[in-house]
Design goal:
It comes from Faecalicatena fissicatena. Residues 14-64 form the SHOCT-like domain. This is SHOCT-like domain-containing protein. This protein has helices at 15-36, 42-56. The protein has a domain at 15-57. The model has no long low-confidence stretch (mean pLDDT 78). The protein has 68 residues and is an all-alpha fold. The longest helix has 22 residues, at 15-36.
Length: 68
């Protein structure tokens, strides 16, 4: 079903999906800070990135670029 005022499928932006996106952003920010402070390597950061995508299922994971 499409909402006429927003032209967005109802049910797509559920509370769970939005919370998953927020949790993903927080986890990525922590991982980036760890990388910047030399606590983890780029390889470990990339592994965390993949795990975070699977765990939190951010809204637009399918179009996010993959980090080599």
């Amino acid at each position: 079903m499409t909402d006429k005022t927003t032209n967005v499928q109802s049910g797509y932006f559920t509370q769970e999906r939005i919370q998953g996106d927020l949790d993903y952003c927080r986890a990525q920010a922590i991982a980036k800070k760890m990388l910047d402070n030399g606590l983890i390597s780029m390889t470990e950061f990339n592994k965390l990135n993949a795990i975070n995508r699977e765990t939190f299922s951010p809204l637009f994971a399918e179009i996010m670029p993959k980090i080599p």
